[in-house]
Design a protein that fits this description.
The structure is a homodimer of 260-residue chains. Chain A has 260 residues and is of the alpha+beta class. In chain A, 21% of the residues lie in helices and 25% in strands. Chain A has six helices and eleven strands. In chain A, a hairpin with a 2-residue loop joins strand 3 and strand 4. The longest helix of chain A has 13 residues. The radius of gyration of chain A is 17 Å and the shape is globular. Chains A and B meet through helix 2 of A and helix 2 of B.
Amino acid sequence: MTFPTALDVRTACRNGLLTTPTPGYAPGYVQANLVVLPRDWAFDFLLFCQRNCKPCPLLDVTDAGDEEPRMIAPDADLRTDLPAYRVWQNGECVAEPIDVKTYWRDDLVSFLIGCSFTFENALVQQNIPVRHIEENRNVPMYRTNIACRAAGRFHGPMVVSMRPLTSAHAIQATTICARYPLAHGAPIHFGDPAAIGIPDIDKPDFGEAVTIHPGEIPVFWACGVTPQAALMTAKPPFAITHKPGHMFLSNLRDHDLQTD
Amino acid sequence: MTFPTALDVRTACRNGLLTTPTPGYAPGYVQANLVVLPRDWAFDFLLFCQRNCKPCPLLDVTDAGDEEPRMIAPDADLRTDLPAYRVWQNGECVAEPIDVKTYWRDDLVSFLIGCSFTFENALVQQNIPVRHIEENRNVPMYRTNIACRAAGRFHGPMVVSMRPLTSAHAIQATTICARYPLAHGAPIHFGDPAAIGIPDIDKPDFGEAVTIHPGEIPVFWACGVTPQAALMTAKPPFAITHKPGHMFLSNLRDHDLQTD
């Protein structure tokens, strides 16, 4: 199956036909992380995003109970239009369903957060290799020892995604990604994984490991799975997120997020 | 009196020695609008800012009761360090004190919002005239017929600031200001004031009128007084803001807000 547009991806998800990670899908459309929280946890989380805009750049926030992200994809349904979800209770993932219709409540506020899959399209167009796309895997993601700024009940480590690059490609990728601040922007680290608290580059905490060729260094970007690490520490009674790598496809185009 | 740094301005305010508008003060330091609301109104307002980032670009949001904007000016005191304030009850301005110590409460959340005075320094350095600085006045500000996106109980018209420029300067100013998205960015309109619902350019709703020379057109930017118009419609029982033009001086430097 190929999915030329965001609507194609969402429709396939809604019909249960697409339940896999979305890197490289509907190229040119902005992908988004999802965090859904009860209204009484929403201010703390919105503040967490405001204070940690590198891992958590906000693209849209719904009114309580509204399943439609009206700014970035009117007519979409956040309960059905992602390939896979995680349902959280007291900071633990208790289910990974392919829709969350039975879990939905009138007091839920949904947060859509920018995703690095957006700038990957720009990298590919510049002939910069994106290894997990080449190897048809989910991107590798890691918890770090970099603390986010706390906000109310939310705190926790920054999660990063990793792409192996030569130093020349790393420099090119840095200037390209800096133009997408709403898709995590420039990298936050390259080189030694241990310097940011990653013990084993071959064992990501989320997603899948990828090959690092001789002459390549790991390059790390702030990642929209960071809120899931914050959910584990804050332990709200209830939450929904996307399953890492299984993103929401918005109607925004990559160039909508690009600065001059 | 001259005020080379933000700290000089804040200290003079704290000692009651500075109670005037701040355009051109402490050049190179980022100025900010202030909105202070009770905790139970804070989510709606944070969402209003997220949905209306052109008039309301957030620089910092405090924890409830905290008088210190820890991200942009640690050690500052928001209760004393602005030249003048407005105190609001049920959507009406009921006082314009020079400090708000006696009004302060433990449940107040403070929002610091970017200000066009930041990019004015860049304009002046490019020899683009800023009329209200030349004429030693407060900037003229107007309510428009452009509706903000509603968020919870907050809705209302966008407020704009105006600077008269030749068309050549307007083009230059547009490219310069676009690099400061956290200081309202590029203009939102130029030319006919009536096209955005301004009946009389010589009668601003906030601040002071300035001279428009022959060959100049009015150029309009989204303005951080927009939340004050939203307060008038939402009518929260209690709020504090800066007095228009009487800004908070942060420790951020202009280049901190500049994109590449």
